[in-house]
Amino acid sequence: MVSLTGTLMLQEEMTWRVAVTRNYQENMGRLWQLGVRPEDVLNLMPSQADNAQLNQIINGTPSILQFVGTTNPSGLGAMQSATVTAAVNISQNPRTESQGSPLTLSFYRPSLPASLRPPAP
Q1: Given CA atoms 112, 27, 51, 57 in this order, what sign does their dihedral have?
Q2: Under 8 Å between Cβ of 94 and 16
Q3: Mapped to the 3 state alphabet, what secondary structure does the chain carry?
Q4: In contact, 33 and 26? CB cutoff 8 Å
Q5: Residue 45 vs residues 1, 32, 42: alpha-carbon distances, Å
Q6: Which of these, 30, 65, 26, 24, lies nearest to 47 by C-alpha position?
Q7: Band of pLDDT at residue 9, cut at 50, 70 and 90
Q8: Per-residue pLDDT tens for 45-96?
Q9: Residue 5 to residue 31: CA distance in whole angstroms
Q10: Which of 75, 78, 84, 105 could cysteine-pair with 111, CB 3.0–4.6 Å?
């Protein structure tokens, strides 16, 4: 019974870490979909350096990569695409990091003519 309780607690902790990391990724993708440049997305996200809990959950720094040109996913028309990659810290010791399997999420946004996009600040 004690062994099962320890296993369930560890599984709950890892599930929580995965959920926080995926939420972080999704928020990065949504900012990009709203028109924020990839290099500015991380500046708008909560900093791992300023948040000890977030630093313990996410392994390394998540990244966003925008692809050049457009794609046509499932016949939806010309879309810009980007991927967001992040990994969970699977270490049981909060003072060390051990990278879990990184997950990459794909995001799309309409490709607007350059004349409709406001200039970058």
Answers
A1: negative
A2: no
A3: CHHHHHHHHHHHHHHHHHHHHHHHHHHHHHHHHCCCCHHHHHHHCCCCCCCHHHHHHEEEEEEEEECCCCECHHHCCCEEEEEEEEEEECCCCCCCCCECCCEEEEEEEECCCHHHCCCCC
A4: no
A5: 41, 12, 5
A6: 24
A7: confident
A8: 999 989 988 989 999 999 999 998 778 877 777 888 999 999 999 988 877 8
A9: 39
A10: 78
* This model's pTM is above 0.85: no
C-alpha 11/C-alpha 7 separation (Å) is 6
Tracing tokens 């939420």 back to the chain, one arrives at 23
**Average per-residue pLDDT in the chain?**
87
- Comparing CA positions, the residue from 109, 107, 51, 44 lying closest to residue 79 is 109
**How far from each other are the two terminal CA atoms of the chain, in whole angstroms?**
59
How would you list the strands of the sheet with 58-66, edge to edge? 58-66, 79-88, 103-110
Of 67, 80, 88, the C-alpha closest to 23 is: 88
